[in-house]
Structure of Isochorismate synthase:
Amino acid sequence: MTPDFLSAIAQQLSKQLPFVVYRKPKASFISAIFQADPKLNTIRDFSETGFVFAPFDADNPSYFIKTDTILKDPTHYETAPIAYKKVENIDSEDKTSYIKLVQKAITETNKGTFEKVVLSRSIVFKCAVKPLEILQSLIHRYENALCYLWYHPKVGMWMGATPEKLLHAEGNRLTTMSLAGTQKYNGENTPTWGEKERKEQQLVTEYIAAALKEQVNNLEISETETVRAGNLRHLRTKLSGTMNHNLASVIKVLHPTPAVCGMPLAATKKFVMENEGYERKFYTGYLGELNFKKESDLFVNLRCMEFSGGFATIYVGGGITKDSVPQNEWEETVAKSRTMLDVLLN
Ligand SMILES: C=C(O[C@H]1C=CC=C(C(=O)O)[C@@H]1O)C(=O)O
């Protein structure tokens, strides 16, 4: 980021005014959106223009930052990433309680309460690094992700590098994706996927296809492919079509999908909220550009963290089915936490 761009953001932050800085996947520029006043704007019907920030729980308000000033800065991939010290937080208490939670979910899947549920946990670290420095490292490291830093004085500060798109809408053309199934990236060109991962991703695809049935014409479903997200790989299927309803109606059926909540929705949302033992807030919500010249580009808020009072809270989760092995599910969340941890200084 150029010095002028950085100092404009630093100034906005010092005035405690809302802003977002982000780089879309593979984009050659970084955008910054500044709101001129400290107002907390709530989405009413998705006809608003701004950068939306929505929570996991769709019953809670979604916010947007008004586009009073938009700045663009070329992405300098040559920017040196910050030197980092690996942070170890393999807390055995976290592990015991997460494994218990996964076992409880497997029991429910065996009883038929639900087919798949996405469970998660949060990890808290002391963090003295400046958020803008971390963002530069994220941008440098995760070319395929939406990398962002979001701030509102009345809500807080969040950062992430997410590989998952909620939707792209241009005019009435809609594209979305089913992203699920995880394995560590080890440099092999042809990964092999287990039955559990294939099934859990297929379930997300089927759910989205059924949800969009009433919303779009000419639904097209792509072949399923493996995509890389930093140190991980996922299975991805793209879905597209022509919207015959408005954006609000499409978002309503697409958030949350079983990539972040479960199937069926009501039972799994209840299970998540009653059993995870913490509030997800904006993790597994969504964020992005809403109605920028008839175009909306929204992403699911994964591989993210929240900054508060010198601490960073990282949020990670994974899909649980009857074929889940608790120890593997724990390890998957550890692997997912590396996306953020690898850029965090001690
Ligand atoms: C819930 C998360 O990931 C989702 C997206 C891709 C793969 C996932 C999985 O394999 O479980 C999750 O559905 C997370 O990163 O916290």
Notes: The helical segments are 3-14, 92-111, 131-141, 195-212, 247-254, 265-275, 326-341.
